Amino acid sequence: MHQQPSLGESFRRRLRDNLCSCSCSTAETPAGPEKTAMPPGSALSQHQLDRVKVAKVALEAYYHNLAAQHTDRVKRYELLEQTMDEEELNLDQKQERREQHSQKETEFLRVRRARLTVDDFEPLKVIGKGAFGQVRLVQKRDTGHIYAMKILKKADILEKDQVAHSRAERDIMAKADNAWVVKMYYSFQDQSSLYLVMEFLPGGDIMSLLIKRDTLTEVETQFYIGECLLALDSIHRMGFIHRDVKPDNLLLDSRGHLKLSDFGLCTGLKKAHRTDFYRNLSAAQPADFAWHPTDSRHRAESWKHRRRQLAYSTVGTPDYIAPEVFSNSGYNKSVDFWSVGVIMFEMLVGFPPFCSDTPQETYRKVMRWRETLCFPPEIPVSKEAREAIQSLCCDAQQRLGDLAEVKLEAFFSDLDWDHLRERPAAITVNIKAIDDTSNFDQFPDADLKWPTTTAEKGHERYRKDLAFINYTYKAFAAFADPQ
């Protein structure tokens, strides 16, 4: 009996046929009116090689997307059936739900085919800036929905070798579908920029909260660190390591609960976090890091003054980065737990344990953490909190390695992990409207014009095309979920 090829095998066959056709036609088609076809056996020009490469990647992406879309559609239908069973609907009610779902799926296919551009959005306000672009509050013209749009400049990403990181951010946000990760609704591009359209979280970020409050109580710290650990566990289970956990990247929703953001493009992946930026700095002596108990107030004031500038800097700060990341000796998901320990210290003390006037000096302190991780004697921190921090900020082999181990720490003994997101937040967030930006920095002089695009030709155009192929994404939730 003849066996039908699987969906994946059919895709691979079609891909192979298309690639062969593409390669042959590229080699034989004139590049312009003044050129003739290359004789058989001649080497391909760089321009033709670029075209073949772009076509190959585009076709691979196309068939991969077809398979992924089919899988997602099946999952949505299975979820619908499960939900209807749980609600104990009768046959007529189930059939009505199925018809409504089918109509949504059909409409979503139509929406997916429509090309998205910046003209589909009304820019309202700039709410953040970074090394590669900015974040804006925008409103979708046809629905009126409010979003946060991250705009990244392609030229800067290519120049600073951040293509892989920009793709990683887009991919994890497209894959993540849980309450702990900022939801991405769309991603698209034009010739000059990449655009990530995400849910707008009006509560601001933990950095802003710490700047306002200086320190948090141990009860408040327990709540936010607990939510941060649950959020990290959700992406660790997906096979990802955040690598850039810091207060700037912990956002708060309208209820004051935490979500992870910025997967790949912020401080942890900038030059200041590369080992070569700190060459010849490891010869520092322990005396260079001597603790002066009387300077904690000065350090807290200095840190608070510089913190916002560091967030926008192209250099950034290595305060939250685990030492093994710098040593190039390999690392695992426990680097995220180190970062959580640093944030916990900052919440209770008012500044991170390794903060200094320069990134280089901070790096020295991180690398010699055994001498520099000290608690100011004049600031009360409980024994349980100290032990939790020391279990997170320690040698990689002894560090707490997963959420199950963290839950055993005495500091978290009375935390209801299973219902943390359902309970009221430790600190109430006051939101006046869906587009309230009072918890964000204000940029009154920011230009709201969309980035201009310039036509490019030849190799540079194909280089950009190849780098950002398959960046476009549309979530079913963007169409199906009311705001």
Describe the protein in words.
- This protein is of the alpha+beta class and 483 residues long.
- The chain folds into three domains: 7-30 and 42-113, no CATH class; 118-202 and 440-480, Phosphorylase Kinase, domain 1, CATH 3.30.200; 206-419, Orthogonal Bundle (Transferase(Phosphotransferase), domain 1), CATH 1.10.510.
- The protein has helices at 7-28, 46-87, 91-113, 154-159, 163-175, 206-213, 218-236, 296-312, 323-327, 334-349, 359-367, 369-372, 383-392, 403-407, 458-467, 476-480; strands at 121-129, 133-140, 146-153, 184-189, 193-199, 250-252, 258-260, 473-474.
- The protein has a six-stranded antiparallel β-sheet with strand order 1-2-3-5-4-8.
- Helix 2 packs parallel to helix 15.
- The longest helix is centred in the first third of the chain and has 42 residues, at 46-87.
- Total number of helices: 16
The CATH architecture designation of the largest domain is: Orthogonal Bundle
Count of beta strands: 8
According to CATH, the homologous superfamily of the largest domain is Transferase(Phosphotransferase) domain 1
In the residues, how many domains can be counted?
A: 3
Give me the CATH fold name of the largest domain: Transferase(Phosphotransferase), domain 1
Structural class: alpha+beta
Radius of gyration (CA) equals: 26 Å
Q: Which ranges are low-confidence, i.e. pLDDT below 50, for 5 or more consecutive residues?
A: 4-8, 18-36, 265-294
- The CATH class of the largest domain is Mainly Alpha
The largest sheet has its strands arranged as 1-2-3-5-4-8
Mean pLDDT: 79
Helix content: 40-55%
- Give the overall silhouette: globular
Instruction: State the order of secondary-structure elements, H for helix, E for strand.
Output: HHHEEEHHEEHHEEHHHHHHHHEH
- The N- and C-terminal alpha carbons lie at a distance of 52 Å
Instruction: Specify the biggest β-sheet.
Output: 6 strands, antiparallel
Percent strand: 5-15%
